[in-house]
Each structure stands twice: as structure tokens, then as C-alpha cells.
């Protein structure tokens, strides 16, 4: 009887496959490896920028001559890796201070809006004023001791153009990097992603590392150019040296050591023969 009932019952419908699990949300804070990479990249950029000779101190009422080489270095720096590094350090920071050196007040205010928006920092009322057409220094503090975010605008007699970036992280280490490009976050979505310790170091990323190395800034004035040809997932990076043959060996050795130190995922650095 039981066998007869089983034969009369309709067969069970085939089991439907379970839907794939939703993707994991991105981490709220970067990993320790990503923080290390961001710190190393910004330290390399800072050292390269400081390698340029500083202009003479301005006299009262007279602006110093603009440090053209340093400003040109900042203007030519690859934006995506720098923007991602800044955002990576700003994400876990309890406080972020910015110092914007600009040609005039309108540029300083526009760039401050870009930086605070990109880094999800609180807006602040801007106090102070600058004579029309005069260079400006805009100081921003996301969390001053006296209360909410604050910003103050004042005249600037120096020649630098860029941003001093000072994030305070829970580890208590002092971090300040300068002078970063004013328009680092000018393009929509610039620096929208944090540095990811699982992301492969592609050509654009390695180009940013090379451009930020102090040795690259030192030899650029000697006619040396370093081109990134490839960056593989295995950690192998291939570059090409272009410049005086007498400097090639020394530059290649310094670049190899510096790249491995900045990003431990880079395991091998080769140089191709000149084209």
C-alpha cells in the first residue's frame, strides 16, 4: 500500500540552488599593511619634496621667490596613488589638520572643499581674510581642542603651492607630509578608494612610487628619467633607465632598494636595456 501511495504522489521538484551570498562590505578602516604602504609612499614623497632647495626667507612685506622646482614636482606627481594614500591615513585618524598654500583665497577655499569632501571631514566656517589677489594660507583643523572643526584664512608670503597634511592616528606617531598637490582631489571620485593590501601593484601604482622616491627627484635635474614598463602580480617590476650612462648603475641600485623598502610586495626590480 505504501509503495502504491508513493507511486501516485507527484515527484519532488528539483531543489533550487541557493543564491550566492552578498559581497562583503568594504572595511571601515584600512589594514595595517595598507597603513604601512600609505605611510611609506607619503614619506617618500615628503623626502623628495624637501630635497629641493628652500627659497630665501621672505622679508617683511615682500614675498619670497617661488620654489619653482618644488612646485613643479608637486604639479607633476601622479595623483591616484597619492590620493589613495592620503585617504587611507585619514580614514582612521581622530584628527586631521591641513595647511593650504595657494595663489589666492578663492583657490584655497575651493581646494579645501575638495579635500574635506574627499576625506569625509566636517565642514568648518572660515574666518579671516586676505587682500584681493594676494597669496593665501588656509589652516584647517577637523577637531581642535576648543570645539568643532575650524578654518582660518590669512596672508601668505611664501612661494610654495600645495597642502600640508597632518593626520593623527591612534598609534600616536607624528605624521606630516608636504607639500602635496592642491588639486589632489579635483577630479570627481579621485582617491575614492583606500589602498588595498590585496590589490596587485599595477603600473600606475608603481609609477607613483617611483615618482615619489627621493632618488628620482635628485637625478631628474641630471637628465635621468625612469619609465615603468610592467608590474606583475608575482612582485616583479620592470623599468627602463634613460639618462647619462655614467649614472645608470648607481641609480638602478638605489631604486631597487628604495622600491623594496617602500612596498614589501615588490620582490624583484629589473631594468630593461635602453630602447
Automatic annotation (TrEMBL):
It comes from the Eukaryota. InterPro entries: DUF1824 (IPR014953). It holds the Pfam family DUF1824. Gene3D superfamilies: Dihydrodipicolinate Reductase, domain 2 (3.30.360.10). This is Uncharacterized protein. It comes from Prymnesium parvum (Toxic golden alga).
Amino acid at each position: 500500500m505504501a509503495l502504491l501511495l508513493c507511486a501516485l504522489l507527484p515527484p519532488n521538484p528539483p531543489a533550487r540552488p541557493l543564491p550566492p551570498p552578498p559581497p562583503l562590505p568594504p572595511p571601515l578602516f584600512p589594514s595595517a599593511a595598507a597603513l604601512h604602504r600609505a605611510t611609506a609612499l607619503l614619506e617618500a614623497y615628503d623626502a623628495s619634496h624637501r630635497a629641493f632647495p628652500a627659497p630665501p626667507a621672505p622679508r617683511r612685506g615682500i614675498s619670497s621667490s617661488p620654489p619653482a622646482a618644488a612646485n613643479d614636482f608637486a604639479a607633476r606627481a601622479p595623483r591616484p596613488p597619492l590620493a589613495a594614500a592620503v585617504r587611507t591615513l585619514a580614514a582612521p585618524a581622530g584628527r586631521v589638520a591641513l595647511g593650504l598654500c595657494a595663489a589666492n583665497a578663492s583657490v584655497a577655499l575651493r581646494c579645501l572643499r575638495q579635500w574635506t569632501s574627499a576625506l569625509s571631514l566636517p565642514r568648518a566656517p572660515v574666518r579671516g581674510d586676505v587682500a584681493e589677489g594676494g597669496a593665501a594660507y588656509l589652516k584647517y583643523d577637523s577637531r581642535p581642542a576648543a570645539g568643532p572643526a575650524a578654518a582660518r584664512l590669512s596672508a601668505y608670503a611664501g612661494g610654495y603651492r600645495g597642502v600640508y597634511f597632518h593626520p593623527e592616528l591612534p598609534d600616536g606617531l607624528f605624521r606630516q607630509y608636504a607639500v602635496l598637490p592642491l588639486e589632489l582631489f579635483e577630479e570627481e571620485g579621485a582617491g575614492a578608494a583606500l589602498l588595498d593590501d590585496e590589490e596587485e601593484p599595477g603600473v600606475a601604482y608603481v609609477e607613483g612610487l617611483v615618482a615619489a622616491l627621493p632618488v628620482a627627484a635628485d637625478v631628474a635635474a641630471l637628465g635621468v628619467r625612469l619609465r615603468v614598463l610592467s608590474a606583475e602580480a608575482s612582485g616583479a617590476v620592470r623599468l627602463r633607465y634613460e639618462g647619462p650612462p655614467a649614472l645608470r648603475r648607481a641609480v638602478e641600485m638605489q631604486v631597487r632598494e628604495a622600491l623594496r623598502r617602500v612596498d614589501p610586495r615588490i620582490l624583484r626590480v629589473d631594468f630593461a636595456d635602453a630602447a
